TrEMBL record:
This is Insulinase family protein. One of its GO terms (biological process) is proteolysis. It comes from Sinomicrobium pectinilyticum. Gene3D superfamilies: Metalloenzyme, LuxS/M16 peptidase-like (3.30.830.10). Residues 190-367 form the Peptidase M16 C-terminal domain. Residues 36-180 form the Peptidase M16 N-terminal domain. InterPro entries: Metalloenz_LuxS/M16, Pept_M16_N, Peptidase_M16, Peptidase_M16_C.
Length: 441
């Protein structure tokens, strides 16, 4: 029964994705450099207003890390026309919701409103860009908020320092080496003038993209955008530094002790190309083969069959300048960490030396078709994708065309990219182990 059911599932998935509608959009620039993207979808009376700024943790002074994430919080404090503490109340009172997030490469703010409140969303984001109130009261308040977030999500969370330990050891020169949340002592030492200067440099129209997606009338929306964002002065052009890492030529070993865990973990990480490179797409497919679902190679072998791991995963963490290909495992029972590494290397070696079967290739293509449809299944998701493809890839059309890149990647390319990047002499080997006597220092 199972053997006949699986092809039917794959066929239905293929038929579903083949008829997925393309995302229609229009994009243009205001005179001040703000890039605008509009997507009209009148199927539901909702609209998303979103602004992505091209600033992340990589843009920070090494002695003032955490600024980009700090501003994710700080720019909700209030504006000249929105009183302190009123931002979220205004959104909620008008039937909306909002959020923001920061990565190494960008910061993203968005609101979702009933479409009759589109103008409110545009006004609020223009206020954030033009009239933010940055004062010592707000800085002190958000300093405590960020410290509590760090305590909750990292310091007191099992495996909460995983990413910090990884990137600190995988990168030596690039700003990716420090955590997005930054160092609390850097935020404590920063002056109000330093925060004001950071805002003036990065949170300007020529360093941002505005996306309006949903139930809109295009001409009216353009008029409102011009009214609210057009008068905002252009900022100074931003000159970004580039950082080149020396290739890893031998296994780099590191160890991190976490007082919040009882079960150790082993992690292997490899430096990989920018998200914009074709090889990054092939590495995404390698991840699916190794650990996407219970039938994936690593899960089936180490969790299901040999019962050596209680959890295992592989993923390509793509960023604008570099990527990190990460494989991690938590041992089951007394399985030595070295044993897990040997088993992982064996499966990676298979990928490096053998083509995946035609059947596995077809299944892989269907997985990525399904992911493509899901990513564009909501107005909120479409807005995020439009902003990201423009800002980080320099090609908004990828919202419709990226799936064609995955479709075009061959079995030979999957083998070759694994052979090129996933070798023991090119990796970090991190032992993430319990600590019994207090905090890491």
């Amino acid at each position: 029964m199972k053997k006949r059911f699986l092809p039917i599932v794959l066929l239905l998935t293929s038929l579903f994705t083949a008829t997925a509608q393309q995302v229609a959009f229009e994009e243009y620039d205001l005179d001040n450099g703000l890039h605008v993207i509009l997507h009209r979808d009148n199927t539901a009376p909702l609209v998303t207003t979103a602004v992505m700024y091209h600033v992340g943790s990589k843009d920070e002074n090494p002695e003032r890390t955490g600024f980009a994430h700090f501003f994710e919080h700080l720019l909700f404090e209030g504006t000249e026309n929105i009183d302190r503490g009123q931002w979220f109340k205004i959104v909620t009172a008008n039937g909306g919701r909002n959020n923001a997030n920061t990565t190494q490469d960008r910061t993203y703010y968005y609101e979702v409103f009933p479409s009759n409140n589109l103008e409110l969303g545009l006004w609020m984001e223009s206020e954030r860009m033009l009239h933010p109130v940055i004062n010592q009261i707000g800085v002190d308040t958000q300093n405590e908020v960020v410290k509590e977030e760090k305590r909750m999500r990292m310091d007191n969370q099992p495996y909460g320092q995983f990413a910090t330990a990884l990137f600190a050891n995988l990168f030596e020169k690039h700003p990716y080496r420090w955590p997005i949340i930054g160092a609390m002592e850097h935020l404590d030492a920063a002056t109000l003038d330093e925060f004001l200067a950071f805002n003036e440099k990065f949170y300007v129209p020529n360093n941002a993209v505005l996306v309006v997606a949903g139930d809109i009338e295009t001409d009216k929306t353009k008029k409102m955008i011009e009214d609210y964002f057009g008068p905002i002065p252009r900022g100074k052009d931003i000159t970004r530094k580039s950082f080149m890492e020396s290739p890893l030529t031998e296994t780099k070993k590191a160890r991190f002790e976490d007082p919040n865990i009882q079960i150790p973990a082993i992690l292997t990480a490899y430096r990989t190309p920018s998200m914009k490179e074709r090889e990054a797409y092939a590495l995404d497919m390698v991840s699916s083969i190794l650990s996407d679902g219970k039938s994936s190679r690593l899960y089936k072998k180490l969790v299901d069959e040999k019962k050596k791991a209680m959890e295992i995963g592989a993923f390509n963490y793509s960023l604008e300048d570099y990527g990190a290909y990460i494989i991690y495992a938590l041992p089951l029972g007394g399985t030595p960490l070295d044993d897990l590494v040997a088993e992982i290397d064996e499966e990676v070696g298979r990928l490096q030396n053998e083509l995946i079967s035609e059947r596995d290739y077809e299944k892989l293509q269907n997985q990525f078709e399904n992911k493509f449809v899901n990513a564009n299944s909501s107005i909120e998701g479409i807005a995020n994708s439009l902003a990201r493809y423009y800002m980080l890839y320099g090609n908004t059309r990828l919202i419709n065309e990226e799936i064609d890149i995955y479709r075009s990647i061959t079995r030979e390319e999957i083998r070759d990219v694994a052979k090129k990047y996933l070798n023991p002499n090119q990796r970090l080997l991190l032992e993430y182990v319990p600590r019994e006597d207090g905090d890491n220092r």
